Amino acid sequence: MLGEEQFATASAWEERGLLALVGIGVEPGLSDVFARYAADHLFAEIDEIGVRDGGDLEVPGYEFAPTFSIWTTIEECLNPPLVWERERGWFTTAPFSEPESFVFPEGIGPVECVNVEHEEVLLIPREVVCNRVTFKYGLDEEFTKFLRMLDRTGLGSTAPVRVRGHDVSPRDLVAAVLPDPATLGDRMVGRTCAGNVGEGHRHRRPSAGGVPVPRGRQRRDNGASRRAGRRLADCNQSGHRTRAARVRSVGGRGRPRPRGVRSCPFSGPLTRTRRGMARGRALMLDLCNEQWRALWRSSR
Predict the structure, then answer these.
(1) At what angle do helices 70-78 and 141-153 cross, to 10 degrees?
(2) Per-residue buried b or exposed e for 210-228, using 16+ beta carbons within 10 Å of the residue's own CB
(3) What is the distance between the alpha carbons of residues 184 and 273, in angstroms, rounded to a whole number?
(4) Does residue 192 or residue 254 have the better pLDDT?
(5) 199: which strand partners?
(6) What is the mean predicted confidence (pLDDT) over 225-245?
(7) What is the pLDDT of residues 126-180, one digit of tens each?
(8) Secondary structure of the chain in HEC code, one letter for each residue
(9) Facing residues of 109 across strands?
(10) Which of 6, 37, 173, 247 qualifies as a FRET site for 224, CA 20 to 30 Å off?
(11) CA Rg, the chain, in Å?
(12) What is the distance between the alpha carbons of residues 218 and 49, in angstroms, rounded to a whole number?
């Protein structure tokens, strides 16, 4: 299962008194922080956390050009996608299952999204109390047909085949003949968006005996929970809390230093990240091509 190899090394890191943070990109990484933020500040109970990734990027002048690593895309989309539910635990479904039309912000509009294999489904249930976790990726009809063709013909396989005296991986061959997205950044037009959508309740629902269901560290926020219509939450989200709640959330000094392997800075002494999220009052990431290029240039 995804992540088992990394989590298996936790004891070695703990023995050395060190902390390893893995999966700290956008997805996974920031999406996991969004999930924890929603649990701590927006909901008392969470029914479902869904990570959604989609966009309208195009590369003019190319009949077909991937905007992300085609090797990784094949891996994630053709592997049986994972879903987590409280009653069932982790289970897999068929590739491209549970299609839905999700409306992305900033003019991207509706994009059909389907279940794919991704790390958040493994990471979020470890730290966030909820009933269901999914990850869905936006795939247009043409790209879906392309991926299905690779699956049917065996071109998505990584197992080497003998061709004229040489061992060749079909997937490596596909990646080699298609345009390299790392060289197409300046030609891409459009936007891409990744974020979380949550469904839940702002107040704890009573149990059968009339006693509120305990939810651990999850707290109730004072503002509106999210926009209607199941869209990604944006900067209009409320992040205000009572003074007492703020003091509890940032009081990390003096606590034992975390050790082992962690998937992302959900809680604990890593309060700068949490304070930054509270100030930003945001649950979405909407980085357009221009911003990606600026980040890339600044890192060189």
Answers:
(1) 80
(2) eeeeebeebbbbeeebbee
(3) 32
(4) 192
(5) 48
(6) 37
(7) 989 999 999 999 998 889 999 999 999 999 999 999 999 999 999 999 999 999 8
(8) CCCHHHHCCHHHHHHCCCEEECCCECCCEHHHHHHHHHHHHHCCEEEEEEEEEEECCECCCCCCCCCCCHHHHHHHHHCCCEEEECCCEEEECCCCCCCEEEEECCCCEEEEEEECCCCHHHHHHHHCCCCEEEEEEECCHHHHHHHHHHHHHCCCCCCCEEECCEEECHHHHHHHHCCCHHHCHHHCECEEEEEEEEEEECCCCECCCCCECCCCCCCCCCCCCCCCCCCCCCCCCCCCCCHHHHHHHHCCCCCCCCCEEECCCCCCCCHHHHHHHHHHCCCEECCEHHHHHHHHHHHC
(9) 104
(10) 247
(11) 21
(12) 15
pLDDT band at 243 (very low <50, low <70, confident <90, very high): very low
Q: What are phi and psi of 168, to 5 degrees?
A: -130, 130
Q: Within its chain, how far is the Cα of 13 from the centroid? A: 25
C-alpha atoms less than 13 angstroms from C-alpha of 90 in its C-beta half-sphere: 16
* Token pair recorded at residue 76: 């994630």
Cα–Cα distance for residue pair 49/34, rounded to 1 Å: 10
Residue 92: pLDDT band (50, 70, 90) is very high
CATH topology of domain 4-299: Dihydrodipicolinate Reductase; domain 2 (3.30.360)
Q: Which amino acid is at 156?
A: G
Mean local confidence (pLDDT), 196-215: 64
Token reading at 121: 């489904």
> Which residue in 218, 221, 183, 197 sits closest to 285, CA to CA?
197
Sole residue written with tokens 């980085």: 287
pLDDT value for 227: 38
Q: At what angle do helices 30-37 and 120-127 cross, to 10 degrees?
A: 30
Domain boundaries, the chain: 4-299
